[in-house]
Amino acid sequence: MLLSGVLLLAGCGGTSGGSTSGASDRVRPLENCGRTVDTGGAVPQRAVSLNQGTTEIMFSLGLADRMVGTATWTDPVMKGLEKADEGVERLAENYPSFERVLGTEPDFVAASFASTLGKGGVATREQFEKLGVPTYLSPSDCEGKDNSGGGDGSRSEPLAMETVYGEVRDLARIFSVEERGEKLVAQLTSRVNKATKDLDASDVTLLYWFANAESPYMAGCCGAPGIITGELGAKNVFDDTTEEWPQISWETVADRNPDVLVIGDLTRKSETAESAAKKIEFLESNPVTKTMDAVRNKRYILLSGQAMNPAIRTVEGVEQVAAGVREYGLAK
């Protein structure tokens, strides 16, 4: 049920739902995060995606045969997309070098996060574009968001699923498969509506913990967790901060005492307490957190890292948090 929105599209061939040949369709330039994406009118044939979220959108649009590399994974690939993933080389589990990406001879590079295509990341958009390689950045990480400071940035406007759908439509346009893009958006929208039908969680408080035990990253008001919370009509106990993932002390967390803890179940190893098992072990042994209501009652909802990032798997997050709230008997 959770995967019905992508399975129909994952196996699309090169001719159904829109041409990807580039022979008859001219790809129009589009504006993206303050830059123009211009492929010279041609459909990309050797694309590289540098973040898992964008990669899974491209796989879901049936574009694996137009890709020569992926990178930066936090989780196993989404179910239903394993075959597509097997056919595309992983350049690195985290950031690949600029030279490694260029070695694939890409004609298009996409990323989910400004940090990936910025200083300290793989390379800047300018560096790629100087070599004639057009780049695309997920609008979820630039529209209504300030990435100029430290950390993961802050938002002046709450993120909406429409912005995520905008990325689907943009990539579908760049690869000249607009019909597939509209089908995917329709399926994702239907899943959100089904998951939240007749759900009233207005009295439920949630906390989203992404990673790190010593200085935990908790979700602020307005990123992907904000979408999930808003769709349920619930409340994020840290909705008073516009930072994307502020680091918050456990004393403050315990003081907010949320009804439910939404926990990132990550497979990477770049921070402490990445897996859900490690997080729960910490919560139930730490003297500050073990007396929290959610911990004492074991009210945990486990999400993939991608479900907590702005991506099509945010829909998966809506489904799983809605189901968990219902299971715990907290919804009206």
From TrEMBL:
Pfam families: Peripla_BP_2. Residues 134-158 are annotated as: Disordered. PANTHER family: IRON(III) DICITRATE-BINDING PROTEIN, VITAMIN B12-BINDING PROTEIN. It comes from the Bacteria. Residues 46-332 form the Fe/B12 periplasmic-binding domain. This is ABC transporter substrate-binding protein. Belongs to the bacterial solute-binding protein 8 family. InterPro entries: ABC_Transporter_SBP (IPR050902), ABC_transptr_periplasmic_BD (IPR002491).
